[in-house]
């Protein structure tokens, strides 16, 4: 389809039949038709191009239509697109599992594949509960989560999202009731005072007999507010979890594979969790795939319990196409000086967004790794700002009070400058 009338028809069908994420079915607002993508650019139906500042919700770290990634998909397709994982295995899954175990902390030796980040979190929560059941402590089934945290949109994941900023307050009455503690306030580059953990220390001391695990996003809280905090908090939290016999789950779905300047955010603290959730850029944005890693102790305990197995099994678990793509993405990332690339992006985002700090409507400008955030004093209207960004040739999708960028790692300096200038310009034109 290439003519305006054909695209008008397509958009009409879209409006009639598709329900977009976090949008009204009857009045979804601005929907921008994309015909193809290359590098960091989205090609639109009307011939315009947009510089993608979102890496397609933080996953397309190598950009679009990358020849290495394309070859990996084609090569795997020649062998098989999919095979069930129950009772069967295949080279791509085995190799990917070995790579993930090699790259993550030594204590994480087992990999459970799933289809999406939300399901990876569900798997971690279920593993934590089943672990304590196998240990003869079925009362340990509640979770502790941080305020301003976000872990996904399925029911278990929603239950550990912040009830307010996690976007799921409408479901509060039907979700499992979990414990919440204040998010750390200590800055990323500062030590974390013991007082920051007073609330969770008190909670664990009183309720550890009913708590299975603590779950949090290490160092960077994503969709709950794009907040950065001190790695020292993680070190102190690990000690607390050990003292009170509570498992520790790290959700690195957004931060994994270099986004914070380390391959995994946990490396900032040198802390090893009991369970680790990965997703998003695991496949470089090509396929949907997630993974939950756990310790040998946890895996063997569950396997020795009543069921003799972990009770979960996605239909597309270990999908060969997705696993082969993930291998290609990780090998491509590690074959390059990605740390220097992320450091450059961070510097350019910091410099480009700095002028926004002087605007009256801006609360704070902050950056970490290849993440740049402008936090406003009031919420952003997507219907207002989306056309403003498109007119400036960039794709940025704010939420709440946040106008932010997580660009593909392949974005060059001139495109970063265009992206940040557009962000500052649009924010400057918003009413305050």
Automatic annotation (TrEMBL):
**Where N6-(pyridoxal phosphate)lysine occurs, residue numbers?**
280
Q: Which residues bind substrate?
A: 57, 150, 280, 313, 397
Q: Where does pyridoxal 5'-phosphate bind?
A: 117-118, 251, 314-315
Marked site (Participates in the substrate recognition with KAPA and in a stacking interaction with the adenine ring of SAM) residue numbers: 22
Cellular component GO terms, alphabetical = cytoplasm
The protein's assembly and partners: Homodimer.
Gene Ontology terms: biological process: biotin biosynthetic process
Q: Return the broad EC class.
A: transferase
Descriptive protein name: Adenosylmethionine-8-amino-7-oxononanoate aminotransferase
Write down the NCBIfam families for this protein, in alphabetical order.
bioA, PRK05964.1, PRK07986.1
Query: Which keywords has UniProt assigned to this entry?
Result: Aminotransferase, Biotin biosynthesis, Cytoplasm, Pyridoxal phosphate, S-adenosyl-L-methionine, Transferase
InterPro entries linked to this entry? Aminotrans_3, Aminotrans_3_PPA_site, BioA, PyrdxlP-dep_Trfase, PyrdxlP-dep_Trfase_major, PyrdxlP-dep_Trfase_small
For whether the record's keyword set contains S-adenosyl-L-methionine, the answer is yes
Transferase: is it a keyword of this entry? yes
Subcellular localization(s) per the UniProt record: Cytoplasm
Q: For this protein, what is the EC number? A: 2.6.1.62
Q: Which residues form the signal peptide?
A: none
User: What pathway does the annotation place this protein in?
Assistant: Cofactor biosynthesis; biotin biosynthesis; 7,8-diaminononanoate from 8-amino-7-oxononanoate (SAM route): step 1/1
Pfam families, sorted: Aminotran_3
- Role, per record: Catalyzes the transfer of the alpha-amino group from S-adenosyl-L-methionine (SAM) to 7-keto-8-aminopelargonic acid (KAPA) to form 7,8-diaminopelargonic acid (DAPA). It is the only aminotransferase known to utilize SAM as an amino donor.
> What family, per the record?
Belongs to the class-III pyridoxal-phosphate-dependent aminotransferase family. BioA subfamily.
Q: Name one GO molecular function term.
A: adenosylmethionine-8-amino-7-oxononanoate transaminase activity
Q: Which reaction does it catalyse?
A: (8S)-8-amino-7-oxononanoate + S-adenosyl-L-methionine = S-adenosyl-4-methylsulfanyl-2-oxobutanoate + (7R,8S)-7,8-diammoniononanoate
Q: Which cofactor does it need?
A: pyridoxal 5'-phosphate
């Amino acid at each position: 389809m290439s003519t305006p009338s054909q695209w008008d028809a397509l958009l009409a069908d879209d409006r009639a039949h598709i329900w977009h994420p976090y949008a009204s079915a009857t009045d979804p607002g601005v929907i921008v038709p994309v015909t193809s993508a290359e590098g960091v650019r989205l090609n639109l139906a009307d011939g315009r191009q947009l510089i993608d500042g979102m890496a397609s919700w933080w996953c397309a770290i190598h950009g679009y239509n990358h020849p290495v990634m394309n070859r990996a998909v084609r090569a795997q397709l020649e062998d098989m697109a999919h095979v069930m994982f129950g009772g069967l295995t295949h080279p791509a899954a085995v190799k990917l599992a070995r790579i993930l175990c090699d790259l993550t902390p030594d204590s994480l030796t087992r990999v459970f594949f799933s289809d999406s980040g939300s399901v990876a979190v569900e798997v971690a929560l279920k593993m934590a509960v089943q672990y304590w059941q196998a240990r003869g402590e079925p009362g340990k089934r509640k979770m502790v989560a941080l305020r301003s945290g976000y872990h996904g949109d399925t029911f278990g994941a929603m239950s550990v999202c912040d009830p307010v900023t996690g976007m799921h307050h409408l479901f509060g009455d039907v979700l499992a009731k979990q414990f919440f503690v204040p998010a750390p306030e200590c800055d990323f580059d500062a030590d974390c005072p013991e007082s920051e953990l007073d609330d969770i220390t008190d909670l664990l001391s009183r309720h550890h007999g009913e708590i299975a695990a603590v779950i949090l996003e290490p160092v960077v809280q994503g969709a709950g507010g794009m907040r950065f905090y001190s790695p020292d908090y993680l070190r102190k939290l690990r000690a607390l979890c050990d003292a009170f016999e509570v498992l520790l789950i790290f959700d690195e779905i957004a931060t994994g594979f270099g986004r914070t300047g380390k391959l995994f955010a946990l490396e900032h603290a040198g802390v090893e969790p009991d369970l680790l959730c990965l997703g998003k850029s695991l496949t470089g944005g090509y396929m949907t795939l997630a993974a939950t890693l756990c310790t040998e102790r946890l895996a063997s305990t569950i396997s020795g319990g009543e069921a003799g197995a972990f009770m979960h099994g996605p239909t597309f678990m270990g999908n060969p196409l997705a696993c082969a793509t993930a291998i290609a993405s990780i090998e491509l990332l590690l074959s390059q000086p990605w740390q220097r690339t992320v450091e450059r992006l961070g510097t350019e985002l910091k410099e480009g967004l700095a002028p926004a700090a002087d605007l009256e409507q801006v609360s704070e400008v902050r950056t970490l790794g290849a993440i740049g955030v402008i936090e406003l004093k009031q919420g952003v209207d997507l219907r207002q700002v989306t056309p403003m960004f498109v007119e400036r040739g960039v794709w940025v999708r704010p939420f709440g009070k946040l106008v932010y960028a997580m660009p593909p790692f392949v974005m060059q300096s001139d495109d970063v400058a265009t992206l940040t200038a557009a962000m500052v310009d649009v924010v400057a034109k918003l009413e305050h």
